[in-house]
Structures are given as structure tokens and as C-alpha cells.
Amino acid sequence: MTNDPNVPVFARAILGGKKTCKVEARVSDEVKEAVRRRWLDLGFASESEYLETLVTIDCYGKNHIRMVRDQQIAMVCALPDTEPTVEGAAS
Q: How many C-beta atoms lie closer than 10 Å to residue 62's C-beta?
């Protein structure tokens, strides 16, 4: 965890949780198409997911996002190895 008092610590994942607010901007057709190509090329599920990631990294920094994702992975890795959670995942 970060010791910086200016970086908020979240009870829920910074990129997840309940999303009730919008961030909007007007852009040209060219920018809209460039964004569409970017999120598709980078493997994002949607334009919204791509833009959320950009905004979150800009606001909180890559290190904070990595820390949150590392914590999520650590919690999942702490699960017992008795049964796979997805059919066929035990290979």
C-alpha cells in the first residue's frame, strides 16, 4: 500500500465496483475513430473500459493501479486449490 496521504485507498477495486457517474467529452470524428481502433487493438472489451482505464491511470498513476490489481491477484491466489472454479480450468 502507498504511504502517500493524497492517494485514496479504496474498499473496492478502483477499476471495478458500482459505477454510477459519467465522464463525457465532445471529440471530432477522427478522434472517435482513433479511440475505437485503440481499444480494439489493445483488447479492451469496450470503449468505456478503455476510457475508464485511461482516466483512472491519469488520476491515480500506474503504480497505484498495479498495487490494486496485485492485491486482487493475491486474494484470488489465496483461494484453496481443491476445485477449479471454472469447468476445465484445472489443466
A: 10
DSSP assignments along 7-28, one per residue: S---SS-TTSS-----------
Residue 79 φ/ψ, nearest 5 degrees: -65, 150
On whether the CB atoms of residues 47 and 39 are closer than 8 A, the answer is yes
Residue-wise pLDDT for 22-59, tens only, equals 899 999 999 999 999 999 999 999 998 899 889 989 99
User: At residue 62, what is the residue type?
Assistant: K
Q: Who contacts 40 (Cβ-Cβ below 8 Å, separation ≥6)?
A: none
Match 493524497 to its residue by C-alpha cell: 6
Report the alpha-carbon distance of residue 58 to residue 66 in Å, rounded: 13
Confidence of residue 10 (pLDDT cuts 50, 70, 90): very low
Q: Place 86 in a pLDDT band, splitting at 50, 70 and 90.
A: low
